Design the sequence.
């Protein structure tokens, strides 16, 4: 495995950022034709775009996956001028890639350890400060005709807000004082909301996103999309419940949300949930969605948006792969930096290696090379043709090194772009 694993994160950041940049501006339009549940899945897909390595498809297609996976071969970084070359050389001298890798791994470890410890402490608090319900709340809970597999209803005198927690076994925790403060209808609405969260495994999904956040602890865009995911999770729950509500019940539901929200602000408490944000969700937006009582979205629209999102994701991976030269240049630990004006680079047509290590080569004549950039329109579209190139370097002790590269050449202007190296040879005494 390549020591500089931060390059994986760098490629993923580009892929995820481009995916989100295309999808998020159309969030409201997409919701108009779909549903809150679909938007929740779409935000989850946007979050996963920061983790799933779609760019590897294009490395595999080029047959160069070993360069990034195992570090085989030496990537050649072609630069346009000496200033950029000096910057890359400076970054290479201070081991930027290795430093970035260590910082990223350290941040990931700290974030994940903090997440796990916080979650364990929270679950212990739930078990210590909560008891099984056996009063009026329990009676209302039992009367709700919804699946309650692996769910346990608890009441607590410590927590001041209802919530659901637990992964394998779900705990629905209701503050003890709610039994006196809330009407039967209000308790029923609260329990319906929490049972819906538990039935959809929303706790597991949010914890999973926290783990993914550990890999992207440095990325503010990931935090923003994670908040959107949490919001759509709540709206989708509201949307499911309000489908069968009358307009009067929807008004009561909004009043209940406001009532609990005010308690949440004023009460001095242990955080209501490990998953709860310190900042409140966009309550106004939730109220709007509840009152509109939006119908379920079109399945055809969901399929169309899903297909487009997948295309955007793959396209973002292609763009990320296209930036491999820059990513290798900044973060790569094993690389060769070359100025593309270096006269020691020679074009070689159809080079091949035999057992005798003899390369058959046909060099482009000097006249062709001298025409580069002189008589050709610089705004023309390149006509790239795959070829190979070699770079010959004579050392001060009389020895020499020859490196062969995959390359592509534009036969309209003579422009050359080097790819990855595939062979190198060293002579103690230069025979060329």
Sequence:
């Amino acid at each position: 495995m390549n020591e500089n694993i931060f390059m994986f994160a760098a490629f993923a950041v580009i892929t995820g950022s481009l995916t989100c940049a295309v999808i998020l501006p159309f969030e409201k339009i997409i919701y108009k034709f779909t549903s809150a549940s679909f938007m929740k899945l779409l935000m989850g897909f946007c979050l996963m775009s920061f983790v799933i390595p779609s760019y590897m498809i294009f490395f595999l297609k080029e047959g160069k996956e070993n360069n990034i996976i195992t570090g085989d071969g030496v990537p050649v970084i072609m630069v346009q001028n000496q200033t950029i070359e000096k910057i890359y050389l400076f970054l290479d001298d201070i081991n930027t890639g290795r430093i970035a890798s260590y910082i990223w791994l350290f941040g990931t470890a700290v974030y994940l350890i903090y997440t796990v410890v916080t979650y364990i402490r929270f679950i212990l608090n739930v078990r210590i400060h909560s008891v099984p319900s056996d009063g009026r709340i329990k009676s209302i809970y039992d009367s709700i005709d919804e699946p309650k597999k692996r769910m346990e209803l608890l009441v607590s005198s410590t927590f001041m807000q209802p919530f659901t927690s637990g992964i394998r076994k779900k705990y629905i925790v209701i503050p003890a004082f709610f039994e006196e403060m809330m009407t039967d209808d209000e308790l029923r609405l609260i329990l319906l909301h929490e049972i819906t969260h538990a039935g959809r495994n929303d706790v597991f999904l949010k914890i999973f996103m926290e783990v993914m956040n550990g890999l992207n602890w440095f990325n503010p865009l990931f935090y923003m999309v994670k908040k959107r995911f949490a919001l759509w999770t709540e709206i989708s729950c509201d949307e499911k419940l309000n489908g069968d509500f009358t307009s009067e019940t929807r008004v009561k539901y909004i009043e209940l949300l406001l009532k609990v929200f005010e308690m949440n602000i004023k009460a001095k408490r242990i955080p209501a949930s490990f998953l709860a944000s310190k900042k409140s969700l966009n309550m106004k937006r939730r109220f709007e969605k509840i009152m509109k009582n939006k119908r379920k979205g079109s399945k055809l629209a969901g399929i169309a948006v899903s297909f487009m999102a997948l295309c955007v994701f793959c396209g973002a991976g292609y763009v990320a792969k296209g930036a491999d030269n820059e990513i290798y240049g900044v973060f790569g630990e094993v690389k060769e930096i070359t100025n593309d004006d270096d006269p020691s680079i020679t074009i070689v047509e159809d080079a091949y290696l035999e057992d005798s290590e003899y390369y058959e080569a046909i060099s482009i004549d000097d006249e062709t090379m001298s025409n580069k950039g002189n008589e050709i329109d610089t705004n023309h579209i390149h006509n790239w043709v795959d070829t190979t190139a070699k770079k010959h370097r004579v050392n001060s002790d009389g020895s020499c090194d020859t490196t062969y590269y995959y390359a592509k050449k534009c036969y309209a202007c003579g422009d050359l772009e080097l790819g990855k190296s595939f062979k190198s040879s060293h002579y103690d005494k230069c025979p060329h």
